[in-house]
Amino acid sequence: MTTVSESPDSLTDVAVEEPPDTGGAAHPEDRHRLTAVQGLAALSLDAMASVAYGPEAIVLVLAAAGGHGLGFTLPVTLGIAALLAVLVASYRQVIAAFPDGGGSYAAAKTHLGRRAGLVAAASLVLDYVLNVAVAVTAGVAALTSAFPELYGDRVWICLAVLVLVTAVNLRGIVDSARVFIAPTAIFVGAILTMIVVGLFREGPVSTAAAEGHASVLASNATTVGALLLLKAFASGCSALTGVEAIANAVPSFRAPRVKRAQHAEVALGALLGVMLIGLSVLISRFGLQPVEGVTVLAQLADASLGHNWAFYVVQFATMVLLALSANTSFGGLPVLMSLLARDNYLPHVFALKADRQVHRHGVLALAAVSAALLVFSGGDTNTLVPLFAIGVFVGFTLCQTGMVLHWRAAGRPAKALLNGFGALLTGISAVVVTATKFTEGAWLIVLALPAIVLCFEAVHRAYRRIGDDLGLGRVPEPPHRDHSLVIVPVSNLSRLTCEALNAAVSLGDEVRAVTVTHQDADDRRASEALRRDWELWNPGIDLVELPSLTRTVGRPVSEYVRRIYTYHPTTRVTVLIPEVEPAHVWQRLLQNQRGSVLAHAVRRDTDAVICRLRFRLAAGRSRS
C-alpha cells in the first residue's frame, strides 16, 4: 500500500524537460517525431491551401480598377513572393536560434522583451484558432457547392471534420502526417500539373466553369493607385499564413531537428512560391476575370485542363486540403501553448505530454474553442475570413523586428536590413488589413488581442504569488518531525476497515477511528451495533463518535479536524479514507461515493493531508 497526497499542484509540476538535440544520433522517441517530408505534410497544409484563396484575394481587389487593374496581378504576386522569401530566410534563422520552438513568440520575447513576446503569442493563438475554423468551413463550403442539398447540415459536417482532425492528432503528430501526406501530394501535384499544362496553352481550353456567371469587374473602374496596389498586396499576403508553423513546432521533428525543420521550411517556401507565381502567370496569360460563384482556381483548372475529370480532381483535392489544413494549427499551437505554460503564462497542464509526444490538453482546448467558433459562425466562411490573417501579420512583424536586433548584435547589417524590410512590409500589411476589414469584424481582433495578453499576465501573476507562498528559489529549513495523527473514518467492521487501520498505524504516531452518528432510530441502532462490535474486536484504537444533526458525513469530520488543529496546532493530521476498488468499471455505479464527499469536505475546510486507500476486490489486496 502507498498513499497519495492530494495537495495543490506545485509550480514545478510542468512537463519533463525536452532532451537536448543529439546531432545525428537517433533518439528513442524519434518514431513519434517528424521527418522533413512528414513535417511538410503535417505543418504546411495551411500555407499550401492558401493558394486556393491568395491569388483570388489579389484579383478581387484589383478588379475595382477593371481589366487594366488585373494586369497588375503578376507584379503584386512577385512582391508577395519576395516577402515570402524574406520570411522563409528569417524563420530558417529563427529555427536555428530557437530550437525549442516558439517562432515569433521566442524571437520577440528574447529580443524585444516579455510584453512583445506575449503580443506575438496572442496573435499566433488567434491565427491558429481562426485557421481551424476558416479551413474547415472553406472545405465544407466547397462540398456544399457541389452538393447543395447538404447546405442545411453544414454546421454538423464542419463539426464532424473537426472531430476527425482532432482524433487523428490525438494519435500523435507523426500519425497525422502519415494520414495527410497523400492529400498534400495530390494537391501539390494537381496544381503544378495545371500550371505546367497551362503554360503550353495559347489560350483557355475551356470557359465552361465561368459561363452564366456575372463578372465582378467594376463598371466604374478606379485608377490603379498606390493605395489599391497596397490593398491588393495586403489581401494577397493571406497566402503567407502558415509559414511560421514549422518554426513554432521545431521540437516535433526528429534529430537533428534544426536541420530537418529548416529543410521543411525551405521546401514549403519553394513550393508555395512556385505555385503562387505560376497561378498568377496563368491569370495574366488567360486574361482571367473574376466571376460570382466560381473561384479563380476553378477557372484556371478549367482553362488549363479542360472541363473534364482533371478539372474535378483539382476541385476535389482543393476541397480536401482546405478542410484538412486545420491540421497546421494542431501541429503548431499545442507546442506554443506548452512553451507559454513553461513560462507560467498558461496553466501548467498544457505543458504535459501524453504518449506519442502529444500535447493532449492543447489539442483538446484548440478543438473546443474551434467548435464554439464553428457553431457561432453557423459554418459560414465569410463570417470568419475578415478576422483571419491579421494575427499572423502581427506575429510576422514582431518576429522580423526581433531578428533585426539579433543580426545587429551579431554584426550582420545586411541580414538586419533584409529583416527590417520584411518587418516594414508585414507591418504595413497588418495596418492595411485591419483598417480595411475593421467594420467587417476585424474590430473583434483588435479587442481580443489585448484581452488574451491580459489573460497571460493574470496567469503569470497567479503563479508568481503561488511561487512566493511556496518559497520557490529559496533554500527551505531542514525537515523536522512533528507528532502525527491519522484519522480513519469508518461506518462498519469489515476487512476494508482492518486494512485501513493497518495502513494508519504504519503511517502515524497516533491513530483514531471516527464514525458519524445521526439521531433517527435506525442510525442509532447501527451506531450502537458498531460500538458493540468495536469493543468485542478491541483493535487497540479509539473509536470517536461524531454526532451530526444533518445527514452529511463530510462536515462533522472536517470540524473534528479543525478542533484538533485548534488545541494541537503543531500536530500533522492525515485523514485516511478507505474505499473499495471494484473489479469492473461499471461497478463504480454501485458505490455511494462517500469517500469523494469526505475528501472534498476535508480538502475544502482544513489543511489535513488526504489519503485515499483503495482495496481491490478482484485481487484480494489493497493498494492506494
The major sheet is characterized as: 6 strands, mixed
Structural class: alpha/beta
Number of DSSP E strands: 6
The spatial strand order of the largest sheet comes to: 3-2-1-4-5-6
What gross morphology would you assign? elongated
What percent of residues are in strands?
5-15%
End-to-end C-alpha gap: 6 Å
What sequence of helices (H) and strands (E) makes up the elements?
HHHHHHHHHHHHHHHHHHHHEHEHEHEHEE
- Overall pLDDT confidence: 80
Helical content stands at 55-70%
Radius of gyration: 31 Å
Residue runs with pLDDT of under 50 for 5 or more positions:
1-25, 619-624
In DSSP terms (H or I, runs of 4 or more residues), the helix count works out at: 24
3D structure, described in words:
- By secondary structure, the chain is an alpha/beta fold.
- The chain is built from 24 helices and six strands.
- Helix 8 (154-170) packs across helix 9 (173-199).
- InterPro entries: AA/rel_permease1, APC_K+_Transporter.
